[in-house]
Each structure stands twice: as C-alpha cells, then as structure tokens.
Design brief:
By secondary structure, this protein is of the alpha/beta class. It contains twelve helices and 15 strands. The chain has two domains: about 160 residues, Aspartate Aminotransferase, domain 1 (Alpha-Beta Complex), CATH 3.90.1150; about 240 residues, Type I PLP-dependent aspartate aminotransferase-like (Major domain) (Aspartate Aminotransferase, domain 2). About 40% of the residues lie in helices and about 15% in strands. The longest helix is centred in the N-terminal third of the chain and has 23 residues. Bound molecules: pyridoxal-5'-phosphate. The site of pyridoxal-5'-phosphate has 13 residues, from helix 5.
Length: about 400
C-alpha cells in the first residue's frame, strides 16, 4: 500500500462519511458542551452518546431492582434485562452458535481475563503444557496468566510460558516465529485483537494458522469491540473479552464470551452477588447505538483519520511513530492500523508533550500505557480516536505538532 494510495483512500472515506459523522458527534453532550476541548483518549475510555445516558436514567427511574431474586414486576424486568443483554452481546459479536456459547458479565476486560485464568485455565492444563503470553501487550492480558502458572506450580503442575514473538518494526506479532515456537503441548494462547499502543489489528487468522487447530485462543478485544465489527463467526477464537466503558457503556460493565467448543466448559466459580444491573442496561443501549451507527463505518472513519494523522506525522522529522509506519489503511495485506496512533518527539519528553498538547485543548495519554515488560521502555504520546473524533480535530492536532517540530 503506497503512501499516496493510503492518502487518497483516507480522503475519499472522510469525504463520504463526513456528514454522517457530524450527526453522530452531535449526540455526545460532553463533546458539544466543551467545544474548546478535544478528547483524543478513547482507548482509555469512550464518551457516551445521549441514548446511553437516557437508558441509564430510564432504567434507574422506572424499573431499578435486583436481578434473579424478586418476583415482582421491577425485579422481573431487571432479570429479563440481564438475560436479554446476554443474548444482545452474542448477537453483537456475531455468535455462530448462541445456543452453545456463554456470556458472563464482568466489571471489565481485566476482570474477564482474570476470571478465565483463575476459574477455567487450571482445568485445561496438565504438567508440561505450554501457554503463549503476549508480554508486550496490556498488563491486563499478561499478569492473570503468569499468576495462574504460579498457582498451578504450587499444586505441582508445571506449565511453560512461551513469550509471544513480536516484530518490533510493525508492532505486529511475528506469526512465523510463533509457528516455530508452538508445538503439540501448546494448549493456550493469550492474544489481543487491536494493540493498545501500536494500534494494529493483530491478525488473528494468522495466529490460528500458526498455533494449529487445537490450541485455545483467548482474545482480549478491549480495543476492538465498539470500534470495528468483531465477528465470533469469523474469528476462530474461544474467548472474547471486552470492557463496556471502552464501548460507550458505563465503567464497571463488561463481558466474557465463551464459545464452549475447545476444553472444559466455562463456568465461573463462586457466588456472583448482585450484578451491575445499571451497567448492563448501559451496555445494552451502547451496543444498540453502535449497531445502528454501523461498526463497519465506525472502523472506516477511525482508520481513515488514523491514516491522515500518521501520514502527516511521517513528514515531520521530529516524530517517531510506534508500530507500523506504512501499511495503514483498509485492505492492507500486512497489517491494518485502527484508530490509535502513538508517537514520540525527538527532543520533547512525552510527559511534557502531553501537557503542551493540553494547553492547546487536546486530551491525550502520555506515559508507558500499562504495556508489559517486553513493551516500550520509554514513554510516548497516544492519540486514540473514535467515531466522534472530527477531521478538524486531527488537522488542528497536526498543525500544533508541526509547530513544535
Ligand atoms: N486490554 C487492553 C488491550 C486494554 O487497552 C485495556 C485498557 O486499556 C485493558 C485490557 C483493561 O481494560 P479495563 O481497565 O477496562 O479492565
């Protein structure tokens, strides 16, 4: 994919979707209420559209009760809401066999991954088995697996950790090295759908090919659900885990989707207590909103803006872009950058750059982004986009970054 083709493709998508995007942006009160500010930290958490705010208000003022306990109408409605949202999650994730799969509500991706590691993984593994752990991904997708290994070791079951290989230049996994590494004892692979620093789609089809048909793949979809179509029917993975707050629902909501096809059945242990019913109500509304907007168009928009930003940055010698520099747009056979662009300035400390950008109204993340031990050592500035990000914001950011060059 040449730079000029990427540029032309990105401009065409922006031209086509501009009016649609403006109408959607107007549905976010926090953004319309602060026109002088520019929220560019959607990988940390997403803003909420009016429809989600309304659903929260409606739930709390009309049927708020506990779920799965009472038998009066508000309680029954809440119980039904929880069960219907389970089905809603399956539908949103394009579940090919919803009668067999399970959805377990969690407080977010971190708790989802931890639940799988604590309650399910030990049943899968035997002495001498191997697990692949992505040591340059988000810490939430590393520590649960290492803790599970320690826990098993205390019981005399010794499991080998194979570090997921990376290609540093592109920020992608090294699928060839992974194929060499994985053998018949490789039972479990923890992977990420979209990298929270490099921004790339981590090519799940190639991971499945590299590890073979029998290994369980657990996919951290925290940065993909709500940003692009995520299809369980198309991805041959066994778990999909995400956070509601990154998909426009309330913090404290999230889910584990389990295919229930490889390994033991996923049945989270322990007494679950009262579910986060208002969080679940917000999740149902957020998924409705995202589906109506069209996750395919949301992806096209954020990929086009990220390509515009990366293309602008590549012409500024003062900046180093982390991850893939060239194959940025839809259709790239190598890797597709989603709406996350992370970079450093040659002379300005990233923390300072974050403050400078805020003095111009831009809210970005500048630190080491909770990356695991194999990740970047130095801090960087992460700009993360969503469908409400406007092209004008990206252009203004580029002109400020240019002035700092
Ligand atoms: N996985 C990835 C890729 C993330 O980016 C994040 C949060 O930034 C998480 C997991 C953890 O999500 P949460 O803090 O919502 O549990």
């Amino acid at each position: 994919m040449t730079a000029s083709r990427t540029r032309a493709q990105s401009a065409a998508v922006i031209g086509e979707l501009r009016e649609w995007q403006r109408a959607l942006r107007d549905q976010f009160p926090i953004l319309t209420g602060h026109p002088q500010l520019s929220y560019l930290d959607s990988a940390a958490t997403a803003q909420k559209p009016q429809a989600v705010l309304d659903a929260i208000q409606t739930y709390l003022t009309t049927t708020n009760a506990n779920a799965g306990r009472g038998t009066y109408p508000w309680a029954n409605t809440t119980t039904a809401l929880v069960e219907q949202t389970r089905d809603r999650v399956k539908g949103f994730l394009d579940d090919p066999a919803p009668e067999r799969s399970a959805v377990h509500f969690t407080s977010g991706a971190t708790e989802g991954l931890r639940t799988i590691a604590r309650d399910w993984l030990p049943q899968l593994l035997a002495d001498g088995d191997e697990i692949v752990v992505p040591l340059a991904d988000h810490q939430a997708n590393i520590s649960p697996w290492l803790e599970a290994r320690q826990q098993l070791a205390r019981q005399g079951v010794h499991v080998r950790v194979l570090p997921m290989p990376y290609q540093r230049a592109s920020g992608d996994y090294d699928h060839t090295a992974l194929a060499d590494l994985a053998g018949p004892r490789t039972r479990f692979v923890a992977a990420t759908h979209v990298h929270h620093v490099y921004g790339g789609d981590m090519n799940l089809h190639r991971i499945r090919r590299a590890v073979g048909p029998h290994a369980v793949i657990c996919l951290d979809a925290a940065q993909s659900v709500g940003h692009l179509p995520v299809s369980a029917a198309q991805l041959d993975v066994d778990f999909l885990v995400f956070s509601g707050h990154k998909a426009m629902a309330l913090p404290g909501s999230g889910a584990v989707w389990a295919r229930q096809a490889r390994g033991p059945a996923f049945t989270p242990g322990g007494w679950p207590g009262t579910p986060n019913t208002v969080g679940i109500a917000s999740l149902a509304a957020a998924l409705d909103w995202l589906e109506a907007a069209g996750t395919d168009r949301i992806e096209q928009w954020t990929v086009a803006l990220a390509a515009r930003l990366t293309d602008g940055l590549r012409h500024l010698d003062a900046y180093e872009i982390l991850g893939c520099r060239t194959s940025l747009a839809a259709g790239s056979p190598v890797q597709q950058r989603q709406g996350i662009v992370t970079f450093r300035h040659r002379d300005i400390d990233s923390g300072d750059l974050g403050f400078i950008l805020f003095s111009h109204g831009f809210m970005v993340r500048s630190d080491s982004h909770c990356q695991g031990e194999a990740g970047e050592r130095d801090g960087s500035v992460r700009v993360s986009l969503h469908v409400y990000t406007s092209v004008e914001e990206v252009d203004r950011l580029l002109s400020v970054l240019t002035s700092l060059g």
